[in-house]
Design goal:
The longest helix has 14 residues. The protein is elongated. The two termini are 25 Å apart. It is built from five helices and eight strands; from the N terminus they run βαβαββαββββαα. The chain has a single domain, classed as Rossmann fold, CATH 3.40.50.300. The protein is an alpha/beta fold.
Length: 181
C-alpha cells in the first residue's frame, strides 16, 4: 500500500518478456470493471518527455523546477529531483484519486509483484517466491517455493485481475463510483 492506502503492484521481469503488453491488458480489464488505475514506469536512464523547442521544454531549459502541461483532457508534470522518489512518495503526492497503481520496473522495490516470464527469455526470475503475487508465463514453475505462486498464461488478464480484486480491491468500490466531478 502507498502512503494514501492505494494498493501498488509492480509488474517486473527481464527485458523483452512483455511487461508493457501485460500492463496494457491489465489496464483494459481493470477499466472494463470500472476501476481508476494509475501507472508508474521506472526508467533506469535519464529521459526527456517533452519536445525540444516546445514551450514547456523551453520553460524547463530556462530553469523551472516543475513544469506542468495542462489541456482539457490531460495533465503532465515534469519535476526536477535531487534524488529518485520512492513509489510511495510518487503515489502519495500525485495519484490519490485512483483505486490501484501498477508500476513497470522497480525491481528493487518492496511492493507485491507480478513477474512476467517468457520461455524465449529464459527461466531465471528477478523475484523470489515470497515477493510474488503471481507469475504471468508461458512455462511452468512447479519446483520449490515457486510451485505455490499462482501462475497465469501471458494473455490471462481476466484471471490476473480476479486475483488482484480478491487480494487488493475486495472491499473497495471503484473510484469512479466514489468520486463525482
Amino acid at each position: 500500500m502507498s502512503e494514501n492506502n492505494v494498493p501498488i503492484i509492480s509488474i517486473v521481469g527481464r527485458s523483452g518478456t512483455g511487461k508493457t503488453t501485460l500492463i496494457e491488458k491489465l489496464l483494459r480489464e481493470l477499466k472494463a470493471r470500472g476501476y481508476r488505475v494509475a501507472t508508474i514506469k521506472h526508467d533506469a536512464h535519464p529521459f526527456e518527455i517533452d519536445q525540444p523547442g516546445k514551450d514547456s521544454w523551453r520553460h524547463a531549459q530556462a530553469g523551472s523546477d516543475t513544469v506542468v502541461i495542462s489541456a482539457a483532457d490531460r495533465l503532465a508534470m515534469i519535476k526536477r529531483l535531487d534524488r529518485e522518489w520512492s513509489i510511495d512518495r510518487i503515489a502519495g503526492a500525485l495519484l490519490g484519486d485512483v483505486d490501484l497503481v501498477l508500476t513497470e520496473g522497480y525491481k528493487r522495490s518492496d511492493k507485491p509483484r507480478i513477474e512476467v516470464s517468457r520461455r524465449a527469455c529464459g527461466r531465471e526470475l528477478v523475484s523470489t517466491a515470497s515477493q510474488l503475487v503471481a507469475l504471468a508465463t508461458d512455462q511452468p514453475f512447479n519446483e520449490g517455493e515457486l510451485a505455490s505462486v499462482p501462475q497465469f498464461q501471458l494473455d490471462d488478464a481476466a484471471g490476473l485481475v480476479d486475483l488482484i480484486e480478491k487480494r487488493f480491491l475486495r472491499r473497495q468500490r471503484p473510484a469512479s463510483d466514489r468520486f463525482q466531478g
